[in-house]
Each structure stands twice: as structure tokens, then as C-alpha cells.
Design brief:
CATH topology of the domain at 4-188 and 224-252 and 291-312: Rossmann fold
Oligomer: single chain
Strand order of the largest sheet: 3-2-1-4-5-6-10
Structural class: alpha/beta
Distance between the termini: 53 Å
Shape: globular
Number of helices: 12
CATH superfamily of the domain at 4-188 and 224-252 and 291-312: NAD(P)-binding Rossmann-like Domain
Largest sheet: 7 strands, parallel
Helix content: 40-55%
CATH class of the domain at 4-188 and 224-252 and 291-312: Alpha Beta
Number of strands: 12
CATH architecture of the domain at 4-188 and 224-252 and 291-312: 3-Layer(aba) Sandwich
Order of helices and strands: EHEEHEHHEHEEHEEHEEHEHHHH
Bound molecules: nicotinamide-adenine-dinucleotide, thymidine-5'-diphospho-beta-D-xylose
């Protein structure tokens, strides 16, 4: 089966890894990226594949219904891999409306276009919505999120993602649009924008700046190497069942303080610094409002039904990630100039 796939948000962190995987693994597919290149989108993330003949980039906003209609007509997409989103929880706390616009309205505009274009024939069509474990809320010390866990979003970001998931399911039930949703845990890896915990701390260690840990650093996240996430999306895209939801996770829970100490330990060795040097930069700052305590994914369904499991141990994935940042300081310099600096100052100076 051949495909012409629209990947939204393909210039972002996860979208760029997904694009690279599909463009190189499936040369027979035509891959079209739509990305508005917000502060989080960066064409440098796609530099190594920009000359591939099966890759096309379009700069544009998913909330621009006219543009979406036009490109659906032009390219006759057979599938959508929907990654575009406002993705940072802290920004959603200061600017919730932008999250409603992109994550909810943008998703519905794409769903409408898919419905219109596929209404006469849904054979081999798929709208694949990339979502997050945060829609399930916050766990205590015990338990895991399964596909049957009730939604309980608690930040404007997770509320907007939960809402978009509901719209995707509504289009499946109401209009029989072929959809799949996957909900993944925290990703890390190359090309991660340095406003999220791991790349922010890598950047700050490199620049000998404080490592800001919210509250007591005891919140827990379940970390997955980004290349494992996109491999899971590949498996689900090709073998998953329409109408289903799949949870993706690494069974890899860390408190924030433990993960940052491990990062400091590895970076001291790699940078030839004395043991304990980077750890001294850890600084406890005011907690995030409504900070979810713990996320942990049960990915049994994906393993049992489709045979996916993570390929990397965390320490190895973190080591690969640090090496990438050490080898790509120019990328870091480019993304940390301009708007990012303005954001960093308002976010951390008010604490
Ligand atoms: P990101 O912020 O790195 O990238 C988002 C991309 O979307 C950027 O390239 C940006 O330019 C683009 N974009 C934003 N608004 C747009 C708009 N209105 N029109 C067109 N393009 C727009 O995000 P990410 O971390 O790569 O996340 C991708 C998806 O995966 C999101 O839907 C997110 O909710 C989900 N997700 C992320 C994680 C994670 O840990 N990062 C985990 C689970 C799920
Ligand atoms: O400076 C910081 N200090 C800190 O202690 C930052 C930026 C974060 N934190 C904490 C908050 C979280 O407990 O670290 C943890 C991870 O924070 P983020 O990297 O902002 O990720 P999180 O809020 O867990 O959300 C992420 O995972 C799910 C992604 O940003 C989402 O897009 C994804 O859906």
C-alpha cells in the first residue's frame, strides 16, 4: 500500500524524528510536512533529509482552514500523522488560549478536512492523532495509566490535548472517520527544545547556570527515548486497529531530582569535570502551579497486540542524548537566541 502522508508539526521535536523515520524507511511514500515554525519548530531539525525526493515542506498554520482545504485537494493525502501542538505545560499556564486554538481548533480543522476528502472512500485512509499520557491526570505512588483510565486533565495543556482526543473519537463514532490515537509518556533525545527539563538542564550545565527544579524535585515522570516513540508510531500506523487507542511508555520512572543527578554525573564525566561539579548547580525553585505528581504508562496492550517494546535502556539513551548536544552546540545556540531568551527570563525570574 502506498501513501501520501501529511505530517503536521514535522519540524518540532517528535515530528522531526517521525519525519526522518518515514522519509528514509518508506521511500515509496510521499511525505508532506505542514509546520508553522513557531518558536518550537526548526527546519534545522530536518536538514539531513531536506533533499530527499519524497519530502515536501509547507510552512503554514493548522488553524488556517483555507490552507488545509487547499493542500488536501492538491496532495490527496491518504493519511495524517498529527503532531503539531503547543506542547509546553508552563507556557499553557501563562497562555492557555493559544493551546485551545492550536491543539483543539487546529485538530478539528484537520479532522473536518479529512472527513470531507475521504467521505466517499475511507479504504486505506487513517487520521493518526499523537497525544500524551497527561490526559489521564496525575497518579499517586501506585498504579499505571492504561487505555481504560478515565481522563482527568489538570493543566491547560493536558485539558487541550484531552479535548482534541475527544474530538478525534467523536469523528470516529459520528462520521466513521478512520482514526487511531496514541498516548505517550515523556520523551527525551536529540532536537528537544531546551524549555523542557532534560535539554534545559543540559544547556544550563554547558553554560554553568542554575538547574531549576520545581518544588522538592520529587515529581515522577516515565521517560522514553524519542526514537523508540516514533518506532512505536510506525508500528501502530501500519498494524494498529482503526478506532483504537494505544499507550506508549518506557516503564522507566524517575523522580526529577534523580534524573538531573544522573544527568550531572554523566556530563561531568563527558566534560572532564570533577565528580559533583554540575550537581552543585541544582537549585530548588517555586513549584509549577497544579504540578502533576506522577505519570506512569502501562504499555502492555501495545506489546501484546503489536509486539512493540522500547529498545534502549535509559542510561544509554541519556548518554546518546548528551553526546548529541555536545556535538551540536551550534543548534543549541541558534534555538536559545531570540524568543527563547525572552521566555526564559519571564519564566524563571518571576520564581
Ligand atoms: P514541539 O513543541 O517540539 O513541536 C511542535 C511543532 O508543532 C513545532 O514544530 C511547531 O512549530 C508546530 N506547531 C505549533 N503550532 C502550530 C500550528 N498552529 N500550525 C502548524 N504547526 C504548529 O512538540 P513535541 O514535543 O514534538 O510534541 C509533538 C506532539 O507529541 C504534540 O502533540 C505533543 O502533545 C505530543 N507529545 C509530546 C511528548 C513529549 O514528551 N514531548 C510526549 C507525548 C506526546
Ligand atoms: O525547569 C523545569 N524544572 C522542573 O522541575 C522544568 C521545565 C520542568 N521541571 C519538572 C516539571 C515536570 O515534573 O520536570 C518535569 C518534566 O517537565 P517538562 O519537561 O516540562 O515535561 P512535562 O510537564 O512532564 O510534559 C512533557 O511530557 C508530556 C511534555 O512537555 C509534554 O509535551 C508531553 O505531552
Amino acid at each position: 500500500m502506498n501513501h501520501t502522508i501529511l505530517i503536521t508539526g514535522g519540524a518540532g521535536f517528535i515530528g522531526s524524528h517521525l519525519t526522518r523515520l518515514f522519509v528514509t524507511k518508506y521511500p515509496e511514500y510521499k511525505i508532506v510536512i505542514l509546520d508553522d515554525l513557531t518558536y518550537a519548530g526548526n527546519l534545522e531539525n530536518l536538514k539531513d533529509i531536506e533533499n530527499n525526493s519524497n519530502y515536501t515542506f509547507i510552512k503554514g498554520d493548522i488553524t488556517n482552514a483555507e490552507l488545509i482545504k487547499k493542500i488536501f485537494e492538491e496532495f490527496k493525502f491518504t493519511a495524517v500523522l498529527h503532531c503539531a501542538a503547543e506542547s509546553h505545560v508552563d507556557r499553557s499556564i501563562s497562555e492557555p488560549l493559544a493551546f485551545v486554538t492550536t491543539n483543539v481548533v487546529g485538530t478539528v480543522i484537520l479532522l473536518q478536512a479529512a472527513k470531507e476528502n475521504w467521505k466517499h472512500d475511507t479504504t486505506n485512509k487513517l487520521f493518526y492523532h499523537i497525544s500524551t499520557d497527561e490526559v489521564y491526570g496525575s497518579l499517586g505512588a501506585e498504579g499505571y495509566f492504561t487505555e481504560d483510565t478515565s481522563y482527568d486533565p489538570r493543566s491547560p495543556y493536558s485539558a487541550s490535548k484531552a479535548s482534541s482526543d475527544h474530538f478525534v473519537r467523536a469523528f470516529y463514532h459520528t462520521y466513521k472517520l478512520p482514526v487511531i490515537i496514541s498516548n505517550c509518556s515523556n520523551n527525551y533525545g536529540p532536537f528537544h527544545f531546551p524549555e523542557k527539563l532534560i535539554p534545559l538542564c543540559i544547556n544550563n550545565i554547558l553554560n554553568e547556570q542554575p538547574l531549576p527544579l520545581y518544588g522538592k524535585g520529587e515529581n515522577i515522570r516515565d521517560w522514553l527515548f524519542v526514537e523508540d516513540h516514533v518506532k512505536a508510531i510506525d508500528v501502530i500506523f501500519h498494524k494498529g486497529k482503526t478506532g483504537e487507542t494505544y499507550n506508549i511508555g518506557g516503564h522507566n520512572e524517575w523522580t526529577n531530582i534523580a534524573i538531573i543527578k544522573e544527568l550531572c554525573r554523566q556530563m561531568d564525566i563527558k566534560m572532564g569535570k570533577d565528580k559533583g561539579t554540575s550537581e552543585k548547580l541544582i537549585t530548588f525553585v517555586k513549584d509549577r502551579a497544579g504540578h502533576d505528581m506522577r505519570y506512569a504508562i502501562d504499555a502492555t496492550k501495545l506489546k501484546n497486540e503489536l509486539g512493540w517494546k522500547p529498545s534502549l535502556q535509559f542510561e544509554e539513551g541519556l548518554s546518546k542524548t548528551i553526546d548529541w548536544y555536545l556535538d551540536n552546540t551550534e543548534w543549541l545556540q541558534h534555538v536559545t537566541s531570540g524568543n527563547y531568551r525572552k521566555y526564559y527570563e519571564t519564566q524563571y525570574h518571576k520564581r
